[in-house]
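agent: user wants the structure for Ig-like domain-containing protein from Eleutherodactylus coqui. delegating to structure tool.
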Amino acid sequence: MLLLLLFLISCPYCQFQATITQSPPFLILRPGDPVSLGCTVSNAGVPTMYWYRQGIRDRTLTLLLWSVTVNSTQELTLTHFKADRKTGSDFTLRTEKIMDSDSGVYYCAWSSTEEQ
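agent: tool returned. relaying tokens verbatim.
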């Protein structure tokens, strides 16, 4: 523990590394239930944010929605899902009625590109 603490103290740039948090960490729902999944990115400016789903049956990773900036979302599939991005760091995936075919693991991701 002492070594770890010393490393963190001697690593001033570490506090600026971006982190991503999804909430809640897991859900068990019944068909027809509403759902809202939150995603927050810290220390990343205003990144492009994404929601993916990995299906239970086929294990395929599918891009569902993405957002380049605040109040802007694009969707590819699952039109009954919507996304909200009211701030640069928060991206919420929601639906009023979940379906059996929506079963899977949902991932939030982010990317940042800089003009050169």
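agent: one observation worth passing along. The first strand starts at residue 19 and ends at 23.
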